[in-house]
Amino acid sequence: MRKMYPFRPIALVLASATLLSSCNFLFGTKKDEQVDDVLQQGAIDPTVVTNVIGYVPVLPVWGGFVKPTDVFVGYDEMVYVVDNADGGNAAGVWVLDQKGDRQQFIPVPGATKITQDRRLITYVLGRTDSVVNGENFNLATVYVLTGTGTTNPQIIQKLIHPRNDNSRSNTNFRGIFDQQVEFTGIATTHDNGFYLTRRGPTNSLTSNAVPDNAVLVYRPDRSNNGSVRNLNPTTSSLRSVMQVSGITSFLAPPQLVFGMSTSMDFLLLQAAPAAEYKALWIRQIDNPETGISYTENANLLNFDASRADRFLYEGFRFTNPTDLCVAPDETGYIFVVDAGRDSLYQFTRLGFEGVNPPPASGITKQVIASFGGRGQGPFQFNQPQGVAYFRRTVYVADTGNGRVLRYRLSIDLER
Questions:
Q1: For 351-371, how does the pLDDT look when each residue is reduced to its tens digit (9 = 90+)?
Q2: Rounded CA gap, 310 and 352, in Å?
Q3: What's the maximum distance between 2 C-alpha atoms anywhere in the chain?
Q4: Other Cβ atoms within 10 Å of 150 Cβ, number
Q5: Three-state DSSP class for 58?
């Protein structure tokens, strides 16, 4: 078996010339200069016959952004790219069609992350200027929009820190400390509620107010339903929330009549250097007698070396993970982008790193398909901060390079 190395994507080549020539719709002809660049930058050798699989780029690259910090394909099947631009009033959301053609730009001050629920209500994390006690502050805000896939998008509500948190209703505004709070991720659930992650400097475990490092829970009407209480904001564990940097649920587009995930579990990322497990799966338990509680998924500590070489729950597996998503299809793959390592990682729901090998390949372990490294090549990134998955295509917001890249698994090219 060919030896595998992380960060060097290798395409499945079953009768290589036949496969690549059948993919002219993606790359053009084999004599195309772009194809030569892809083969060279990605170390894909079209002359080697092997059963190894990997991700290959979908061309063209979508460039021309200033600072793309997130990408999401909505239930309306439009592609949303958050461009943080100057981090202030020039920030907003580009709306693209599936071909990558820009339809419109929606200004959202300080925009960083985006999601959409099944009602086509869109949520954008940003900032807003507010006057509190006669002073001006710039505060974390969830912008709630309708009509983002039409020519008439409208902001219908703003959820502004700290007023969006019921636990702060009886506490004083903290001035500069509240201004330092950031909303870092948002994920919708099957009932059109959502989880909102935040981080900040105030993390007392004795206060009646929820710590700044927290996961807040919201009902479908966008009212706050408390928080996930048993996540530790300051100490690393399998149930911690130390400088959380991203969150995803197991629900994702496309819209389906049947088969949508009803799980209330979620995955979160921790950016704190001291957090040993920087990606965590948190499970919701709904007990009719005791109510709702949350716990860790300890099953991911099962490091079965006979089935994989690397694992999601390895200690200090990531440096600065910035976003993640889950494939809602039968693969169930988990994708993580790490701005500290300029890389895209892929895992199974068992926490095994790597994609499933072809049935007749004879390979018994997951095949590592993670890749990255600093650069501008088709398999390189510069501080990526967003990742999405839609109909077998992975989208990456390559922030430092001002572009969005797309990838498909080599065995999916004919689908």
A1: 999 999 888 788 899 999 999
A2: 6
A3: 71
A4: 14
A5: strand
pLDDT tens digit sequence for 327-345: 999 999 999 999 999 999 9
d(CA 154, CA 306) in angstroms, rounded, equals 53
Bridge partners, 333 (sequence order)? none
φ/ψ of residue 40, rounded to 5: -75, -50
Q: Tell me how far apart the alpha carbons of residues 23 and 11 are, in angstroms, rounded to a whole number.
A: 12
User: Higher pLDDT residue, 362 or 136?
Assistant: 136
CB atoms within 10 A of CB 361: 16
> 3-class DSSP state for residue 136?
strand
Half-sphere exposure for 174 (CA within 13 Å, toward CB): 20
Residue in 63, 62, 85, 82 with CA at minimum distance from that of residue 71: 82
**What is the residue whose two structure tokens read 């030569």?**
36
Q: How many Å apart are CA 115 and CA 179, to the nearest integer?
A: 23
- Map residue 8 onto helix, strand or coil: coil
Assess contact for 335 and 323: CB atoms under 8 A: no
Residue 415 has pLDDT above 70, yes or no: no
Q: Report the candidate in 147, 225, 169, 160 with the shortest Cα–Cα distance to residue 198.
A: 160
Cβ 240 vs Cβ 295: under 8 Å: no
* Predicted TM-score of the model (pTM): 0.88
Are the C-beta atoms of residues 173 and 132 closer than 8 Å to each other? yes
7 within 8 A of 371, measured Cβ to Cβ: yes
Query: Number of helices (H) and strands (E), helices first, in the chain?
Result: 4, 24
Q: What is the end-to-end Cα distance of the chain in Å, rounded?
A: 26
**97-132: burial string, b at 16+ Cβ within 10 Å, e else:** eeeeeeebebebbbbbbbbbbbebbbbbbbbbebeb
Residue 56 has which token pair? 């290959």
Sort strands 403-409 and 55-62 into parallel, antiparallel or unpaired. Answer: antiparallel
Name the helix (H) or strand (E) containing 25. Answer: helix 24-27
Query: Does the N-terminal peptide bond of residue 254 adopt cis geometry, omega within 30 degrees of 0?
Result: yes
Task: Say what the pLDDT of residue 383 is.
Answer: 98
